[in-house]
Batch of 2 targets.
Target 1
Amino acid sequence: MAISVEALGDFVARALGARGVPDADATKVADLMVEADVYGHGTHGVFRLRQYLARLAGGGYNPTPTIAVAQETVATAVIDGDNGLGHLAMAAARDLAIDKARSVGIGWVGVRRGNHAGPLALYVRPQAEAGMLGMAAAVGSANHVPPHGGTDLLLGTNPIAFSAPAAGPDPFVFDMATTVAAMGKIKTLLQQGRPMPEGWMVGRDGKPLTDPARKSEGFLMPIGGSKGFGLSVAIGLMAGIMNGAAFGSDVVDFTKDTTSSTNTGQFVVALDPKAFGSGDAFARQAARVFDEMRASPPLPGHDPVRLPGDGKTALAKARRSHGLTLDRALCCDLNAIAADCGLPPPFAPDRAG
């Protein structure tokens, strides 16, 4: 079902406002949530509204946080998110990292006392659009993964994202979980009544788990076995422990526990190519290399080579012009949220089901 970007953003902001979030903060978070859907990150966009509202209602989120710089040098900083909606702290970290990179060539800004903030792509694309390279990572908002060879759930999906400018319409934007699939994808399949592919999760018996309703009975699988495990630990050290944020058994499951502070840790980085002597030449050289990759003849049965981020700019422009098409199950959920918040439904009830 289709809805305009403006109408969806307005609804999300009003729903957050109904749970005590001030107008300016609600609008900022809503815009970022809708932007996630605009760029195709639907599992981490408006789909997450119910979770955020549940934590606001349960006291797990501070609806009126004071986002502050807790530690700072010329090139680094730590943002204290004051247990508010995670988008607020991460947006502040992103903007500060970019400002520092403009000044001294690099900005690395960590976050503590943050929360789930949607896809990391939101916090690296602006660097590329400003002619810089970006990186961001986060400790996952729940532990779904055991250490390699173990059975205790001590790691999350611990995502990481990169971006870079390239001459042409699309910057390079790569956003991934360190697990084969993000938990958001599994939750989306559960909402839609669809099974998981084999290889995403295994049960404690080591056998494939394909029913998303049984996700709590098994483990998410790391990418690349022990390599994905090692990468996830490295992210936990840099995004969690270094910022004074949660990692390991300290991580709070933000879905199951709606009352406790999560102290989620993240970081955002910006690098200015000018500080490394390349400047605008970086984007031209990157575009040349990317074109070589796209020109590589595909293997039989494979689609042409694409780079992460290809086509996203045009897709986002089209969605902003013509609206977003949301899954019917999500539309029903948003209508139910509207009823819970005392708001008009964003979709006609007879169409949403």
Target 2
Amino acid sequence: MLKYSYLAAALTMACGIAAAAPNANAPASFAGNVKSIDQVATARFSALDLKTIGEEDALREASGRPMRFAIAHDSAVNVQSGGSWEQHGERSIWRYRVQADAATSLNFGFTRFHVPASARLYIYDNKDHAQLAGPYDAVSHNALGQLWTPIIAPT
């Protein structure tokens, strides 16, 4: 049986021509002077029904099907329709927070992924930023136009 715990992840895209953050491989939001994470637009997902999931997984295993990796939650968020924008001099910062009650981990699949040359995408555990995926940038584009991120687990 899977055990789930709470994780909040924030997706951050920093765009613009301003000087890099103090650590060039860290999101500009790590440098401070941004809105509190509690003020950022948030997608919230309720805890999963682990009893039903366990029963489904047992049936999958009994029928010889592969193990389930994750439970998908579809979303159509983009920088125009969701998230929170902030302006800091010449730099624009877009952030979006994901909270999944009792989740063991989160990972993200962007089925339509494109960022401009001046932008960077980071995904991180908001508690202490111990887990950081990215930066993803224009070099990260692939022939399918997708991006699948590593797992971010609670710290």
